[in-house]
């Protein structure tokens, strides 16, 4: 998580400018630029993007962190719902494996392949997240902080995913800042959920049996 925040932060600082709503906007706009804008070789204003390597590396760090995350989060409710835990883990790993390709396939270079990869990674990821959030909520021994961030992540991702799918299907240009803004809130909620899960797992591992 630290590597993700640091590398993406550097990429944001280096981003020349441009959003889908305003190609001439200076620099990076946290609520109007997508993460994928940072991973493209050229910024939306047409200039070369010097932060592309940092952005791709940062997004890869986030994705790699999801592999141990799915293992840790299922341990929080596996004793109460072992079948759910198995399904969540399989769906989470499938989603994460597909998500590893997303930062390498920018929409500017590969067109429709980029949103298709997002949807391929997003559907099993959302199912895994939804099942995990429900399992955490129904498990009395599950940490409340992890359960709370699980629910907020699923809500943000669901709304943003629905809007993004509608945008892809319509084929129209992005005309609202809601999509990139919700993406950032979903990402921040996911990072918080991952950190809360790691802390809870660490506490359980160090506690007397």
**Average pLDDT over all residues:** 89
Number of strands: 0
From the helix content, strand content and strand pairing, which structural class follows?
mainly alpha
Which regions are unreliable across 5 or more consecutive residues at pLDDT < 50? none
User: Shape, please?
Assistant: elongated
DSSP helical segment count: 8
What is the helix/strand order? Answer: HHHHHHHH
Q: Roughly how many Å apart are the termini?
A: 29 Å
Strand content: under 5%
Radius of gyration: 18 Å
The residue fraction in helices comes out at 55-70%
Largest sheet: none
Notes on the structure:
By secondary structure, the protein is mostly helical. It is 69% helix and 0% strand. It has helices spanning 2-14, 35-38, 52-75, 82-99, 107-110, 113-138, 144-170, 178-206. The longest helix has 29 residues, at 178-206. It starts with a helix and ends with a helix. The mean pLDDT is 89.
Summarize the structure.
This protein is mainly alpha-helical. The protein has helices spanning 2-14, 35-38, 52-75, 82-99, 107-110, 113-138, 144-170, 178-206. It is elongated.
Note the main attributes of this structure.
mainly alpha, 69% helix
Secondary-structure blueprint of this entry?
Elements: H1 2-14, H2 35-38, H3 52-75, H4 82-99, H5 107-110, H6 113-138, H7 144-170, H8 178-206
Helix pairs in contact: 1-3, 3-4, 3-8, 4-6, 6-7, 7-8
